[in-house]
Design brief:
Blueprint: H1 17-23, E1 30-34, E2 37-41, H2 52-60, E3 62-67, E4 73-74, E5 79-84, E6 95-100, E7 103-104, E8 111-116, E9 123-127, H3 128-137, H4 143-147, H5 150-168, H6 183-195, H7 199-208, H8 212-218, E10 222-224, E11 237-243, E12 250-256, E13 261-263, E14 266-271, E15 278-283, H9 296-304, E16 308-311, E17 317-320, H10 323-334, E18 340-341, E19 344-349, E20 352-357, E21 360-362, E22 367-371, H11 376-384, H12 386-401, E23 404-408, H13 413-425
Parallel strand pairs: 22-23
Antiparallel strand pairs: 1-2, 3-4, 3-8, 5-6, 6-7, 8-9, 10-14, 11-12, 12-13, 14-15, 16-17, 18-21, 19-20, 21-22
Amino acid sequence: MGCEREGLKKYEIGQSAAKSVRKGSTTRFITHECTGMTKLIANLKGSTLIDSMEVDLHFKTIESIREKTNNKEIALTSCSIEQLVAKYSNTKEPIAKMVINKKPISRNNSYLVKFVCPTCNTTREITLNLFMRRVSKNTTRCFCCMNEDTEKCEKQSGFMKQNMSKILEGEYVKPAKVSHKTISEHLGFSKAEWEKEDIEFINNYNFIHLSLEEFSNILPKIKGVGNSKLVNLEGWSYFPNYRVFNQTRYTPMLVNLTTNVVEKPQYVTFDCENCSNSFTHRDLEIVKNKLKIFCQGCTLTNRTFRLRTHITKNGSKILWQSIPERRFIEWCDEHSIEIKNGPTIQYMFQEKTHAYRVDFELPTFKMLIEIKDNHCWHKQQLASGKFGAKETAAIEWCKDKDYTFTVVFPKTLQELKDLLLKSCKI
């Protein structure tokens, strides 16, 4: 099915996702193949989308499309306006998009559109983004038409006559917007609206967002919200479906009825359950369905090598990955040698910054210990120079703190143990 000059095609189509949810009807999608792009088309009848005839009228007002950077004119025969669903759309509701040479144009573009205003019959040239906004809102007047509107001019004139003296003297105060609902009233409104939603919409929403029970499970692990703007969540309640007036329609919200304040749960700080380091997730939904909450480093390590913990006699939680590492921790604990998780050190490799977590720190001996085996991972890092970059960064870290950095292998581990025991006796 080709994309032609006539603009949006007339399809036999089903309802849009958002509209079907609002009307409580069954959602039905028909997928069409158009020049390699799969399009999800929504029924225009009863929808907020403008119909195909109106889109076609907007498209026919276009005289030319050109690139602002090089003034290259685009052939209108290669252009069309189509209703497409954005890849990362929350609502999956189609929106009008300009398609040039079979490719939908994003908002980040340099196109200019010259068109004839259907109201005043004058030629205007605006950016493609502004033109597509006219299409989406079905605007039939240009900027000049709106400013020449008699009713608007009379209203503005009356306002200026009434307030000119106060504006010139700096005494005019713009009326504040009055909120018509308290937070408690809005929560009640949200619940009532939620109960009207289609079961399909509710299931899709709950599949992404945390329920009240799920939030209660992770609440003890939260150390702060909004980049530690909130560090004490006592008095705050989690409301999973707070009504908002954008395409998503609902969003989770933290509510404090005592102070009459709401806060969106973003940039949430946790303590890693493995290494105990603090880290921040931008969205709360990333921890949905997770039994344990790990930082990025521990999550990556856990996927590659299973990361385990050993509790020492003094209650310290020490991380280990290989059998030699676990045995070394047990040996230190048996001989009352204090052992800690090694520090995380920043290093540069191939012009990028990376983080290197050293295996262990022995504070009494001022030593950092890295236990390696001759497995393929280590050999690859040696060959690429990555381990050399790690080693250099660790040595620099040790110089600043008067430490020593030691890399040991299973065959040389006994030599290190003998050295440590000899130093203890001394």
